[in-house]
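Please, why this fold?
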Amino acid sequence: MNQSDTKTNPLKEIEEYLENTKYFDYLCQYLNLLLVGKDRAKIDKEVDVKVKELEEISNKPKYFEKVKNSKMRYVKEVKKLDIILNSKELLQKEFNQKNEKLEEEKKIPTISAYKRMLEKRRKLCMDKISELSKIINPINYMNHKQELEDFIENSKIDGTNKEEIIINIQKEFIKSLKEEISECEDIDLLKSYIYKIRYYRYLYISKDKQIKDIFELNESINEILKMVILKLCNQNGLRRISKDNEFNANIINSILDTKIIELNEVKFELEIKEGTIYIKTYEKETYEKEFELATKYSKRDLEVKTGKKLRLFI
């Protein structure tokens, strides 16, 4: 067995993954935003060609007739080439006639070279016949039409919707991250996701906006973080504060919103008074900040002692 058969092809895996997401479309849109000058003009020219082709294939009966006619021309050419290639006398005659029309420096050196030219042309014709046969297949026709529409849509982009495109890319990233985390049960890996998510939400998507400033993105990130928190609490990787998973995740999420770099050094202290839980955070023994959350719970409902500094990560 070929060694490559036993290994996965990373490029193929990426291609298959992108086919099931909108990543590729959004990346194309973003890359088109970056094009300027000759590159922009080249894409604009190609868009014009695709628009005309889309207009042409939208008239399905007329388009299919044109494709069939093109296919028949290539079929006839292949038949003619086969007759020449299968007859030494005819091949010699065609070779002589071809060279008579060429200038001295452009003449074909040998009949073998001329035969290779005809064989190359025959292969090109056969490839075209195969391509045209695929085009008139109903499924391939619809796929090709969709590809043209996608190319036109992704290429006709201007700077006014740059932020929207970047947000769409982030949505796809968050979606894939959620799928990845949902299958993860390794404590160390789950802890590493907390670090990554903390820093990810502070990335800038524009001059004055961070990921966390986009409501729909921040909501999705919080949902993922709650998933990680629940998994870690269930595996004793994080200290559980409340039996209520939602409330527990909200408290821990708030504690994790810290400038402390090393999360293993994060400590917290709780107090509950009159429907409010007060939370202080520390880096080891050094006070960092205090915040509060509304709650319907009392001290008896907590899984930890109040008025005591406790490590968040166990």
Summary: Residues 202 and 208 are 11 Å apart (CA to CA). The chain has eleven helices and four strands. The first helix runs from residue 10 to 19. Residues 1-6 have pLDDT under 50 and may be disordered.
